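Hi everyone, sorry if this is the wrong subforum. Our group has a chain we'd like a structural model of before ordering constructs, and none of us has done structure prediction before. Sequence below.
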Amino acid sequence: RLSGVPHLGLVVALLLLAVVGLVTVPDTFATSSNLVSVLALASTIGVITVGATFVIIGGGIDLSVGAVMAFASVWATTLATQSYGPVVMALCAVLVGTGAGLVNGFLIAYGRMVPFIATLAMLVAARGLAQRMSDKKTQLVSADNSALVDLSTQRVLGLPLVVYILALVVVVGWVVLNRTTFGRRTYAVGGNPEAARLAGIDVRRHTMWLYALSGFCCGIAAIIIMARTTTGSSTHGDLYELDAIAAVIIGGTLLTGGRGSIVGSILGLLIFTVITNLFILNGLNTSDQLIAKGLIIVAAVLLQRRSLRTPT
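Answer:
Right subforum, don't worry. Here is the predicted structure as tokens:
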């Protein structure tokens, strides 16, 4: 919050970045094609960010999202899966992602593993499984499944369908988090697990479903990445977990859980995406972009700590 208005600081930061873009690259930044590119770029990580927001508000962390997305994309683009058509491919991606999330949740909730360790193990295992299944080769979406690729190429009101998928996931995520019992329980579990347990919430089961939801979002993201790149690859989603977690932190969600919002996370994602876009348009070094992102994350965490110390 800034001056009592939720997310005003994030909106101001986004507007300042837009001003920078208009000043440094006026001929390309404000064009419709560039703005569509920004939204399309945000679509994949954006869906993952929604799932990550739930997990972090619930007091957890998921480092495996990028690898799970890659694994889902590889499984969905195998010849055996593709032979059944695009609907089965999409369903396969979602089921694989959800299944990986359930494994994470079971290990954390019932195996009492630390979330960092459990999801780190899944990160390594999912990448390895994706490499083994694809023999470290990129698998192309066949011409018979062009309907999947159409999600990225076909446009409605000037926007590709993948952007509408992101919008749908964000809206549903917001409703679930703010208007359902599941959302209220997520805040309760993240804020004080013991109090939530005493209030009658099955904390372990809820935790498992939070990670399943994160995996489900990874499956949807796999569909989007397959549509955008026309491939399934074990290299998809490299460092996506860091981008998603960073967007959630920038958006004001506490790493300790119990506080956060979908809107804040998406604004944080847009800030990072616009920064990436500005670096590309200005021909700046990728390593400098990573340094800038790192500094932003540090600043966001420091501001969080300061806001927690400040009496309300």
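For your construct planning: Residues 8-309 form a domain with the ABC transporter involved in vitamin B12 uptake, BtuC fold (CATH 1.10.3470). The chain has one domain: 8-309.
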